[in-house]
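Retry 2 of 3 after timeout on previous attempt. Resubmitting structure tokens to design endpoint.
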């Protein structure tokens, strides 16, 4: 059984990319997420495993500081147990989802 203290931070965003400046801001935001330990679940949906809610809030604060002003950016926090019970309607789990578990995080 997965401990409930582990959290999954899910960033969902829709950023404008109609001109060069907007594309650059969107690319920088995606790179920031990757550098901060997030992994792409789907295009414009990134997820990160966190050891607890305080750590997830730390990442929320970091995102607030670098978020572009245009578009829509949301962060959802769910327990790892809730995330693991996500229903996949079409497709399959990504390689990252298969290997990234809270037991792996416990070693760090």
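Retry 2 succeeded. Sequence:
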């Amino acid at each position: 059984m997965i401990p409930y203290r582990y959290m999954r931070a899910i960033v969902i965003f829709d950023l404008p990319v109609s001109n060069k400046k907007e594309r650059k801001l969107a690319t920088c935001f995606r790179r920031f997420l990757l550098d901060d330990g997030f992994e792409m679940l789907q295009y414009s949906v990134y997820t990160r495993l966190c050891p607890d809610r305080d750590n997830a809030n730390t990442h929320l604060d970091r995102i607030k500081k670098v978020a572009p002003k245009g578009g829509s950016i949301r962060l959802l926090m769910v327990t790892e147990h809730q995330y693991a019970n996500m229903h996949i309607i079409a497709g399959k789990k990504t390689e990252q989802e298969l290997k990234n578990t809270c037991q792996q995080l416990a070693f760090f």
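Attempt log closed. The longest strand covers residues 7-14.
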